[in-house]
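Re: your question from the hallway

Yes, I did run it. Sequences:
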Amino acid sequence: MHIELNTAFPARQKLIRPLSNQPFRGTVPGVKHYTHPAMSEVTLPAIMQALADPCRLAIVRDLQQAGGRALACNEVRLEVSKATRSHHFEVLRSAGIIFTEMEGTKCMTSLRRRELNKRFPGLLKLVSAGK
Amino acid sequence: MHIELNTAFPARQKLIRPLSNQPFRGTVPGVKHYTHPAMSEVTLPAIMQALADPCRLAIVRDLQQAGGRALACNEVRLEVSKATRSHHFEVLRSAGIIFTEMEGTKCMTSLRRRELNKRFPGLLKLVSAGK
DNA sequence: TTCTTTGTTCGATGCATATCGAACTTAACA
DNA sequence: TGTTAAGTTCGATATGCATCGAACAAAGAA
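Structure:
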């Protein structure tokens, strides 16, 4: 018996796709404006994958507890290095879960709560309730 | 400045942990009884990770559409090899999402719907609705 | 102006995991 | 008694990704 392989089936997508090819080094706060996907482009598998990590789940929960107030990356209690922390925020951002904006040297991030509730009703509730 | 590294923080867990060390080769249908985690041990990150794959999401959706009826692995429309298919079912099983039982040479699987709805309310709805 | 704070990016490392073909086993069927 | 159907396991391969230290950049404070 012969099995036809994956053609029509949706392929796994890379979690983080580079948004620009500019050979940047270091931050450009105040200059760099973060890129956020349109919520219509956000897929459930990408959301799931972004939330499959305990660190990132913790970030989202902290943001939920902040109740709409934007937090600096720093304010989130996370016991990993700066680089790793930055990575996790980037993942959440490119998955469409958080919104980030520079303010001075800080980057303030908040949940895209309203949009998420519209596109994936029950998702945020699941996150906050899930033990 | 010095950063304290990950001690108290919940570590990433391996997705599939071997359930036995027996050097088996091949299936033992009718003899092998699949091992399923207690729902109380199931964690949200593990669930999320299991559902982060398009194949597995498709499996869960097919099971949802079957409306409680158990399906043979074969009956799920999946364009991957037997081995890969088996792998994905194992991931879903060890994540606590599906229940599998041998019947002759077939393994019949169903969603652990009631338990899931109790422990993670809204999860299955999210899966079926999410585009 | 110099130092500190904040966060990104790079390159490296090591582990996780998606995928396959092949070998295998049992149950059911011819 | 073969033969087929169904599904698992192994070993290999390639890729994904979490993690870190170091180098970097800009804004703000000293």
